[in-house]
Amino acid sequence: MVVHKIILTLTIIMQSLLTVRGDLSENFKLREELILQVFRDNRFEYSFLLGKEQFSAELICLGDQLGKILNCIKYELRNHCWFVFDVFGSSHTLMSCLFPQDQAGICLINTTEELIEKVKKVIQFERGVFIAFPINKEVLWKKNLLPQTEALEGLHHPESEIEIRAFDYSYFEVYTLRDTLSKVFRSCFKFPV
Length: 193
Known about the structure:
The chain has 193 residues and is of the alpha+beta class. It is built from seven helices and six strands, in the order ααβααβαβαβββα.
């Protein structure tokens, strides 16, 4: 189905290029942009829902459970920082102290280890978006389009390594484009076949 969609889209692009007239360098740029967009739109994304089956618990979205998820991938993400958005839950410490935001509304956690320590201080998350990038990678966010906790949205940022969402005290969603992270998740948690 995906391959058929890609072929159909490429056919439409090629037909549209045949009708474009004018400067050839402009045609080439247009073609390049369209093809890149097709591949961006059709990247294979791994997604996981972690709930009662994975944690063998009645309560989900606990800080310790998110800590377990992060511990599972901490080696692969040892050189990554985390952006945290839309976080809300119960804790003995104010969430705004655990996840302080700058003036743009962005919370940056410098390492995976630091994020693990912070999430373990949370009793239970109602919501939250946690997005990892390599340290030193410049990441731009649009202030009016900061990630929110919405179900089944996929990755909020096309260059992120992984995105974890705590959703409605009910489950965690995990999205990644990296096959290696997908394999690590499958080795740490049991998923229905």
